[in-house]
Amino acid sequence: MAGYMIRTADGDDWPVVHRRDFEAVLRPRSRECGAAEAEGDHAFRTGGAVVSASWELADVWSVHVEGAATPEEADSIVAEMARQLGEAAGETAEYHRLIGD
Question: Rounded to two decimals, what is the model's pTM?
Fold first, then answer.
């Protein structure tokens, strides 16, 4: 399982993203996604990967990707999530793979 953090590039807190908007903001628009059961605030399936995202603190989203075909595929999923979060919040976002994942 690959773990990531998504933060604003300047370290500011994320504006509130309402739960009703999670699907539109967190699911990569370039991929076919469906519902999935997993721990976290929002989970979805894309291809063979199950992705779960949680708003851990006001300044970070925690994302876990399980079952991606390659590490590059997991990175690509999270990169698009970060871009969409940034667009929705009017922020520049960056993501980081957690060490050991």
Answer: 0.93
